[in-house]
Amino acid sequence: QVLLVESGGGLVQPGGSLRLSCAASTIVFSIYTMGWYRQSPGKQRELVADITSGGSTNYADSVKGRFTISRDNAKNTVYLQMNSLKPEETAVYYCNARHWVVGIRNDYWGQGTQVTVSS
Q: In this structure, are residues 76 and 29 in contact, taking their beta carbons and an 8 Å threshold?
């Protein structure tokens, strides 16, 4: 199995920044597409950003220009740099790893890290 451990969450003021990290246990980390999702109470979990094994990135429209996803394959780690944070972005942020086996998508999830944006 693939273990994912997030860190870097916390309390930040509106307009502030945080960098989240996700460390993966797999020795074939470079094969996986990695992503960050978030979930607030009463809302569906939503994709924030992802990055493929080839380095292509994708962002939710709401975070474009403010968030940056990156990966360091040598460290088996994916990052999410979050700038200009808004109160409505308070949520638990989850790291996701996915790959395909015989055409079927397989997902792995971290335990989540709390991000609170408040004055």
A: yes
Contact of 112 with 92, CB cutoff 8 Å: yes
- The Cα angle at residue 82 between residues 79 and 86, in degrees rounded to 5: 150
pLDDT for 28 equals 85
Q: How many helical (H) and strand (E) elements, i.e. helices and strands, does the chain have?
A: 0, 11
Question: Which DSSP state fits 84?
Answer: S
Give residue 87's pLDDT: 97
DSSP letters spanning 23-41: EE--TTGGGSEEEEEEE-T
Mean pLDDT, 10 residues at a time, over the chain (119 residues)? 95 98 90 97 96 97 98 96 98 96 94 97
Tokens, residue 11:
């309390």
Cα(57)–Cα(39) distance, integer angstroms: 20
